[in-house]
Design brief:
Two copies of one chain form a homodimer.
Chain A: E1 2-8, H1 10-13, H2 21-31, E2 35-42, H3 46-59, E3 62-66, H4 77-84, E4 89-91, H5 93-105, H6 112-115, E5 119-121, E6 125-127, E7 136-141, E8 144-149, H7 153-171, E9 176-185, H8 189-195, H9 197-201, E10 207-214, E11 217-226, H10 229-246, E12 251-253, H11 259-269, E13 274-278, H12 284-290, E14 299-305, H13 308-313, H14 319-325, H15 330-344, E15 348-354, E16 369-376, E17 380-386, H16 391-413
Parallel strand pairs in A: 1-2, 1-3, 3-8, 13-14, 13-15
Antiparallel strand pairs in A: 4-5, 6-7, 7-8, 9-11, 9-12, 10-11, 15-16, 16-17
Helix pairs in contact in A: 2-7, 3-4, 11-16
């Protein structure tokens, strides 16, 4: 079964927002065995939306549409869908009731434009949206299903989880898609490919191998498609084992999880605790870690020590160290990491201090210079990195490198 | 001038990565007056890529393609482009030299598959990629320009900034697109629309108004297109002023910046300092703030106090408060905020403590219960929120609400 996703909204095409909805939807569809053939973002323009619907109908069995359902004039999805399916409008009682309830809950008067949100093309099936005022609409034409949802991420997510995915699973006999991911670090894509070229050459045609490089890590993904889930699972695991045994020293995890989750899992299994002392990463490492449910059993917290004063007062970095060597130095980052272990009473700590940019660089320490330290009660390792002149990238690459350093230290000691 | 973006790669269609490249590219194109008509993500499948190229050529003057240029077998973009343009291959000397230099820099042996990265379709112009081994390729056919770039974000960004955008600006006489954004908070989309419906009704046809709601904020965007930049700018500013004066009490900023940047700018202009004390947001607020260059002049840092022990030791929350009222309580969040002001010596502090989920909820304090406090030397305000049962959403909404609370406090006092 093939699906397409169409996202509607000028805000995507002028780059004001990043389309995170599509990735989330694609992931959920894949998990139930629906392949996404294409993701298309089009503007709030009637002719363009009509063309996109027509092309998608030809290619796909299921077309998921998000966006353009707000109450305001720039939102034209509903009108355009009515035109595409040649339908009139009716005001849907269930949808109107939901709008009423939402306005009652927030004690706000119901405006005409809100009542109009319950107007729907008369040939569609309405799926009530419990989290917002724009109803979800289900259409069928020439064996293709079209579902129109609001673009607000959490409204879309609830509708997908509670309504759309269960209906699709019930109605179609879907093939199985089994993925297996291996996360590697400290090896480049082409060296990895060279190492496993024999294994790759012998993969059967229904199993694909993809290389996904990002921030010094390469994720390998085996994907198998077929009708027998257990058989696919067995096959994929066999090839994954072959790959892992070939490049074991670079393998971080054989689960589809990010580096920090692999670290949390490892540390949790050993009963270890972690804290952070961040300067230039400004809380980003803490954020990566605390995104994960259950992180509190390993991660105790940390400091975002931007100002010199906080490096001293929270982490116990010596004033003389800062004065002599500066904030971005081996000495300071070492004291930050050791201070975190000592004051936060954790087994391990990560510390980062660097010049994220775009300003603040000098000839000796240009923008992108970042010192990272990992400390335990027994030892501290520190290393300097030279990244780019782009702030966000420096933050992300510093965080990825710090996590990779921690993992290496853990691997040596555990 | 119309552009389309085609991103190639199964990893997008199975939802393993979010396509952030397209939004960035779209934004840069818009700034130089190129409208993006469509963004299309297709799989690593020859037939599908060929179809996407053909459709894009019909609609667009410029087609920017990212992805599928890696050295491994799953990357087929180059081969497919050669087929589309009916070209053979040649090994490009400048591209090969760059590959050599990169391998020399990292002291790694040059493999055959790396040398092959300098193979390009023989009718294309090569633009050397200084940050990676995959060259950028420029094609022209039937008055449409096609540019193929690597999907690695920072390689693509450098190529766009340094090469592609300057070439486009030089070659085409581009219309001007002028945007003006107004960020509002504490008012729903439909109420906002009602408030400004008169103004909206009188907008000329070359000026569009869009409503972009997100996390309790609504961004209004006026966009004007034409040939006279100053005139467009004047017009857009006139309408923006009308809107701002109509809904002034809800306006956060009239710049295209996020809430935290508006707060940083306001506080910087008043010489004020800020710190954070985060529990359930786990460093996310600190990260939002420190993304912005120059944030260090306002933001001194803060604590990510996940464990009870750190709430006590870094922030000075009393053990008895935690024991009596729990971590998620008005009393604790108040002590966290006041502790941050006191210990970090800043004018203002934000504190957040809540149950992000998915576990840890109780009947009295279900998942999504979040206490937020904003404190200054003179007073502390605290408020409870009830969000959803999704962890990431709870973190994001808590951060947005905390920033909105801080802004309200600042507006009252400044």
């Amino acid at each position: 079964m093939l699906a397409e996703i169409i996202t509607i909204g000028d805000e995507i095409l002028i780059g004001q927002i990043v389309d995170t909805n599509s990735a989330w939807m694609a992931k959920q569809l894949n998990l139930i065995g629906v392949s996404v053939k294409q993701i298309t973002s089009v503007s709030d323009d009637e002719q363009h939306i009509l063309e996109a619907l027509e092309l998608a109908e030809k290619r796909a069995d299921l077309v998921l549409i998000t966006g353009g359902l707000g109450p305001t004039k720039d939102d034209i999805t509903k009108k355009t869908l009515a035109k595409y399916f040649d339908m009139g409008f009716r005001n849907d009682a269930a949808a109107l009731e939901m709008v009423r309830q939402i306005f009652e809950k927030y004690k706000r008067p119901l405006l005409d434009i809100n009542i109009q949100q319950a107007d729907v093309p008369d040939g569609c099936e309405v799926i009530v949206n419990k989290n917002g005022t724009a109803p979800c609409m289900w259409f069928e034409q020439n064996n293709t299903i079209f579902v129109s949802m609001p673009g607000v991420p959490y409204e879309m997510m609830y509708l997908m989880d509670d309504e759309i995915l269960p209906r699709i699973k019930k109605r179609f006999k879907l093939p199985f898609i089994v993925h297996k991911t291996i996360l590697t670090a400290n090896i480049g894509e082409s060296f990895l490919a060279k190492e496993i070229e024999e294994i790759e050459a012998h993969l059967p045609s229904h199993i694909k191998l993809a290389y996904l490089p990002k921030l010094g890590q390469v994720r390998l993904r085996l994907s198998a498609k077929g009708n027998h889930e257990l058989e696919l699972d067995r096959e994929v695991k066999t090839y994954a084992r072959q790959i892992i045994s070939k490049v074991s020293r670079f393998v971080v995890t054989d689960e589809d999880i990010p580096m920090e989750k692999a670290i949390l899992d490892l540390m949790k299994s050993k009963g270890m605790t972690l804290s952070t002392a961040e300067s230039c990463t400004g809380g980003y490492i803490a954020h990566l870690i605390t995104q994960h449910p259950g992180s509190s059993s390993v991660y105790w917290g940390g400091a975002v020590a931007y100002a010199y004063e906080l490096k001293e007062s929270i982490l116990g970095v010596k004033e003389s160290t800062l004065a002599t060597f500066g904030a971005v130095s081996e000495q300071t980052v070492t004291e930050m990491a050791e201070g975190a272990v000592k004051h936060f009473k954790t087994d391990y700590a990560i510390a980062v201090s660097g010049i994220a940019g775009p300003d603040g660089g000098t000839v000796e320490k240009p923008v992108g210079t970042v010192w990272i330290a990992v400390s335990s009660k027994h030892k501290t390792v520190a290393k300097v990195f030279n990244f780019s002149n782009k702030r966000i990238q420096n933050i992300e690459r510093s965080a990825a490198s710090a996590l990779a350093m921690l993992l290496n230290v853990l691997k040596e000691t555990v």
